[in-house]
């Protein structure tokens, strides 16, 4: 089992700017390239921060309404400084939160969530910019075909990791929703199988309809009348 890594998903044709790039230059660049943010790098191509559309819009939002109909915003001092900035150095959100090419999609997604950003500059071992990975890039793992997801679960999760033959458990995948049906040797394997299936890239949900031969969890004996959890004789 393996998660897709950042280097497989990131954009490598990266547009960046230096600290002295002007507000207008950045706005034109975003419009021309159809992007919503740009990394700011130093002279050695190491990311210092990111300028996004939101950073640029602070200037417009801070202006007075000519008609006097809208209340004026009173940004905090740091936001006020950004609204007054005219170059990337003052406009950018810094320090840059970065990712590494070898990170898994899980690591990158967690970094994006913790930092509340929409994208991460990707840097090599020397800290130089080599790409950008965005939320949209990470979501591409959910575009995997159902067949690819089913083959990974059957081969990697069930057979190689848990030692469950395909004749024991069948795997159905429809639009990323996984259903497991069959019989396993031990009851304790069931939650493990579900957890591992959930970790497969492209899986949206997992439901299981699995019977077991031996209850090795130490729980009270299964109700013999239960058609699904009845303990079977070896």
Automatic annotation (TrEMBL):
PROSITE patterns xrefs: BON, CBS
Region called Disordered, residue ranges: 215-234
CBS domain mapped to chain residues: 10-66, 92-149
Swiss-Prot/TrEMBL keywords: CBS domain, Repeat
PANTHER family, A to Z: CBS DOMAIN-CONTAINING PROTEIN CBSX2, CHLOROPLASTIC, CBS DOMAIN-CONTAINING PROTEIN DDB_G0289609
Name of the protein this chain belongs to: CBS domain-containing protein
Record's keyword annotation contains Protein transport: no
Residues of the BON domain: 146-214
Pfam family, one: BON
Family annotation (Gene3D superfamilies): 3.30.1340.30, CBS-domain
